[in-house]
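TICKET #2291
ISSUE: user wants both folds in one file
ATTACHMENT 1:
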Amino acid sequence: MSRRIKILFVSSSFTLIIYLLRRYRRYLLRKIRQTSITQERLINIPSSSAISVNKRFLNQLLVIIRIFNPRFGSDAFFLLITHVTTLISRTFLSIYIARLEGAIVKSLVQRNLRDFIRTICIFLTVAVPSSFVNSLIRYTESKLALSFRTKLTRYAYDSYFRNQTYFRVSNLDSRLLTPDQNLTDDIETFASTLTHLFSQLTKPFLDVAIITWTLVRMVQQKKTARGLREVPILTIMVIFLTFWTLRKLSPRFGRLVSEEAKRRGLLRFAHTRIIANAEEIAFFDGHEVEKNWILKLYNQLREQTNLIIKKKLWFIMLEQFLMKYFWHSCGMIFIAIPLLSYDGPPTTDDPIGDPLGISTRTQEFTVSKNLLSSGADAVERIISSYKEIAELAGRTNRVYTMLHVFDECANERYRRISMTIDDHTSIDMKRKVMLNQQAEGQIIESDENIIVENVPIITPNGDIIVESLSLKIIPTMHVLITGPNGCGKSSFFRLIRGLWPIYSGRLYRPNPSNFFLIPQKPYMCPGTLRDQIIYPHTIDQTFANDDQLMEMLHYVELQYIVQREGGLNAERDWKDILSGGEKQRLGLARMFYHKPKYALLDECTSAVSIDVEGKIYERAKQLGISLLTITHRPSLWAYHTHLLQFNGEGQWTFEVLNTEKRLTLKGEKERLEAQLAGVPAIQQRLSELCHLLGEDTIDNCK
């Protein structure tokens, strides 16, 4: 009676555990849906489609594998062959070691000291190559991962720096929030996961095949024993039941890992943004706002990581129960079937000392147990690898999406996500263009002239700044560009340089190498002072010697910096060492080095004295450089021949610049402003006089 109660109690407990697992799974699914809705509201970005192991994942994986596919005769191919060879060798060594352990147990049962010492020595001898093979497996796996990562990284970098994709991904497309993480962490984890999964799947399949063949041969030797048919059928049933249970109760690890990687990327991007804007944040004491934003992003990452940990807790518990304890029990039963059903004569090599063959049966049991344990471990790795395959699906989706976006941006196919942006510019812009509309304008390369025909100026967000712009600029023109903030001055530079797409009309322009932009804050690249002058050329590409470079520095009155910093080959952190005016003049020295047809000057002399900037502009005109200048300084008007003026309401004018007339109007405007500025003071004094005279109002005083 007590035995029946125990059986009933165990079965009831098992049923209760299964029921609780199903209830917990439903609870987690509801929580995931609520978390995804909350996340969409916080980040304002539509959630990606569910990532799982399906045909789409296989297609994405094949596309990526073709990139680093090891060719015959390459180092990667040699590593792959070596890796597979070591995996096969490890399987045969495992079988041989299992037989040695059986021989050791047999010698102990027979109490044969000589055989025991001999088998121990053989075991230690075999342990040396086995240890080397185990280490070689890890070595080749790591080398393969590094090789795959290197090829994939080089391919990704080629795509990232092709056709200004690095600019278009961040400014014209919004599908990749953190391309820096995609190019570094995502590629690294993808390559490591793929190679590790290759080892995790290749060796178990080899183990299952070879161990199964070895066990079948052992059963065949027992001709009167049963189990040659029953054991394989029962084994397949147990494996299928385990796989089906784990498949049904397995969480969506692919989607969870992908979401965790995205949130980690957002947190890293927030830290990068703080580093880039540290000075502005410090000036405004904005550390509390930034801290709250960082903590908010970290809490989102923590919640996602905590969710994965909780899911792994219950899933690993179920996995361990089925593959460790349930399989162990089934394995003992499968071993017992041929041993207990054997009714032939006892097999022994010592008829006198062991007539019943106990030592032989013990040896066979030990070998069978070790082989079944190895086979069970192999099948366990195959089944449990589904979780890693699901994680690989998430990483594959991120890498494939990155490469796909790079390719589309290089071919001017952009996709933006609609967001609410506060715009405080002086222009009343209307959203008239769909964010994902294909740019249908034409860019035609010309010899010298810049010809714009009915081209609208449209921001990447779809805001129309100018509906239609038509003008012609020839190399003898020097164009002054004016207008209020946000009216399209810098946007015009981006348009003719090709950074922004042209949605309609035609743009005739010279080769982009004929343009050179000098912004208000010039970019200081890593390297020497020489590198700053010749940027973006390298030392191998430079065509100027030291005397010519010194002459260019003389043009911008910056020759003293060579002696101060220790020569042209001195390496410094130029962004922090040079003052604002020195950096602007160094940027202008680059213009004299490259001598472009058109120099795009965007407030590039705001920190330079008037006399020095006048010499620089005069020298540039003498060298035949056409100047397209955005400036608010009237002192530079005399160096330009034409005026392109935007009024801030979508209208524009392009005309010959009359400097004298414009200076006269400028002077009259300043006088009127000065007179109007004094009106409030006059009114205040008049009120004081009325009060002193005892008048109640200004009108009575009058």
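ATTACHMENT 2:
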Amino acid sequence: MLGSPLKSRQLLHDEFGEVKPCLREPRDLFAFFSSSGPLQAPRWPIECEVIKESLCHIEWVPPQPEYFYQPTGNEKLPEIVGEEKGTVVYQLDSVPTEGSYFTSARVGGKRGIIRDLAVTLQGPEDNTLLFESRFESGNLQKAVRVDTYEYELTLRTDLYTNKHTQWFYFRVQNTRKDVTYRFTIVNLLKPKSLYTIGMKPLMYSQLDADTHNIGWRREGKEIRYFKNNTEDGQQPFYCLTWTIQFPHDQDTCFFAHFYPYTYTDLQCYLLSVVNNPVQSQFCKLRTLCRSLAGNTVYLLTITNPSRTPQEAAAKKAVVLSARVHPGESNGSWIMKGFLDFILSNSPDAQLLRDIFIFKVVPMLNPDGVIVGNYRCSLAGRDLNRHYKTILKESFPCIWYTRNMIKRLLEEREVLLYCDFHGHSRKNNIFLYGCNNNDRKYWLHERVFPLMLSKNAPDKFSFQSCNFKVQKCKEGTGRVVMWRMGILNSYTMESTFGGSTLGNKRDTHFTTEDLKSLGYHVCDTLLDFCDPDRTKFMQCLAELKELLQQEIHKKFNELGQDMDLEGSWSDISLSDIESSTSGSDSSLSDGLPVHLLNIAHEVNQKKKMYKKKKKKPLQTRKQRNEQYQKNNLMRELKLTEDIPERAGFASTLQKQPTFFRNSENASSSAMRNEKPRLNELHGRDKGSSLDPSKMTSLILTKNKERMQTEKPGFTVSCSPKTSTNPSQEPVPDMKPSWSRNRYPAARRGRAAMTVYPSLHIYTYP
């Protein structure tokens, strides 16, 4: 081979250029990043226009707490006038909505020249704001100028849907200092919002970032959240309005619902991990799958190398994920805090890597994050309602996540699963879990949340946790993983607002607060698995006491006074807890849009060919009795079948008045048949059905018929399955078993008498 002219890049060459008889090490199939190469550019649906500018925001922690807005009662309620009385200064043209569906994607989105959608300024004195949202994670559909410094804004719905307007992130330019601007978002869909209880929007000034290193901060006055009274026959809309003064003239500013964390931000972070010579030793980056648009869904496996195979097999697993809902960027900040700690050289982090294998999916829905969706993927559906799906091509991200966890469960115990989310109606951070029905592990699923509340008392609220499993949540990751066997299966909900607890009371959360939660998850995991079970048992005792108090409270609310001593622990936990309807839940919308028509056709075909199923018999005894009755009927009928047919034929020929006499004939036949039916069903008053007699009767008739037609054939039966224990088998004879027991009965031929009757045996 070495002397042949075959050329291969896989063969090694020494310093003299001679080929060595060995192959190169295989290239790392998952080496996505290199220090010299560029990041993978995000892929957009081909309908989306994308500007060429790349945006980058600095991380910054405000030196002082950012308190909630305190309403004065004098906030103005603006009148919504719309574009009829205003001037459209920004509007996206080609935006896929309900009725269309995703077809393909490419880097850079729509082909062709990217137009400037903002208005053209008439001169330096023109103070019209210039809007833009065609960048990664951006969301703004339209801006209407209704007064000199007042704008009405319309958010874009999630692509290929007509709903889910919550997330906003857009840019404004050509600002003026010391002037009060008013912005009003006019098409929000949720009747309740944290903006009603003091939450402020986020603003970012590019000049402040460049000159003073100041990043995102909470801004806004005269904040109101109210119902839009414009009646157009559709679902009701809600409005968010606020006023603001920009810090500089001619500045570039950004507004957002929460701190953005884009797909590119994630890739930059993962690049730093891959290029770190220490972290890359215990953190392996892989491709879990590709999204609908072809963007990579990353999977991190974090654990210290084991010394022996037995040590590796003994490790339990922990599974964490985030951003299944793309507009809930707070999940990414908690995930970043977790990764920062678990990849550090802290002794606690090293201990966790020694005893656990961490499987981390940091961004489950990259397509939705890229295009600026709030809740859905490019299938136009909420992925967190489809974890039971079999549609791998339509929901690849969660299908492969569930499959990965399923394989992991076959290898080892998964101690904990947690999916990081955001919440738009409740403050603080809390968990949703699943009540355990096994009394051996009663209340154990509540220990981890209680420990977390003790480790982060100013951020995490155990009182807001809920463990009820509702039918509408059966498709969520939390419930599906719980039903797969993970006892500690959670959804972590982090508010878009802030805390109402401890020394952080009435203040907004910063990115540092959220990242600290990631650290507290690690800290609580160590407490939860401490070989010294003191903390665990203390929490369990506290949980029992809290639950008993809750039960007494429920009975008092119902006006009942009941002694629960000794029996209170038998009460169903689901009856005590309220539902999680306060969550940002949405019912499953069903199949992805592009499959709706196909599914309708399939269902129609199923209805056409659907057969009515017989009700199965419940016991072996019933099956045997029914089997014997049916065959006895066939035998009795066959004994009279031939003469009856002959008589019937002659009757047709000789008696033209047959139809007039058919009533008498049928009634006579019924009288003759009735004793047999009574005998079969055991309804005769003077007799009952004896299986041994029935068996003898059948054997006798079969023998007579068989010997008449084939004199040399002898019927035999096996003693192992006979229903009559007194019946002895014929010696030195083997039963002749036939695969097709009753062809004559099915085909209606008299040839049935050729076969031995084996129906006296019971089913196995």
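RESOLUTION: both attachments delivered.
EXTRA DETAIL ON ATTACHMENT 2: The CA atoms of residues 433 and 467 lie 4 Å apart.
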